[in-house]
Write a structure and sequence with these properties.
Layout lengths: L15 E2 L2 E5 L5 E6 L4 H5 L6 E5 L2 E2 L3 H10 L6 E6 L5 E6 L2 E2 L2
Antiparallel strand pairs: 1-8, 2-3, 3-4, 4-5, 4-6, 6-7
């Protein structure tokens, strides 16, 4: 009797990551509650307390909006982030999302 053939699952597509943990804010946006060091968000200059308002051309109304926008992006491509800082100022940052290995 021959041994059964075990087939491995096809490799999954890489998952793009920004390297931040976010939560819904009281206003539109995704509140940064954690920044992974090292990581794309840290390299871009994101800090805890920032609120992400846009990821590229996509407006971010919630943490789920940001997750969907990051997942649709391509690893290694620069993305412009629009951020509201805790003190109320706004800034444009450039991030290069990566993949989890």
């Amino acid at each position: 009797m021959a041994a059964p053939v075990v087939r491995s699952a096809a490799p999954s597509a890489p998952v793009t990551r920004l390297g931040v943990e976010v939560a819904d804010d009281r206003r539109p946006g995704a509140l940064v509650v954690g920044v992974h060091m090292p990581g794309p968000g840290f390299s871009a200059g994101l800090v805890r307390g920032d609120v992400l308002l846009a990821f590229g051309a996509t407006r971010v109304g919630s943490a789920a909006d940001l997750a969907r926008a990051v997942a649709r992006s391509r690893p290694g491509d620069e993305v412009r982030l629009t951020v509201r800082h805790r003190g109320g100022g706004y800034q444009q940052l450039t991030a290069v999302p990566g993949i989890v290995t």
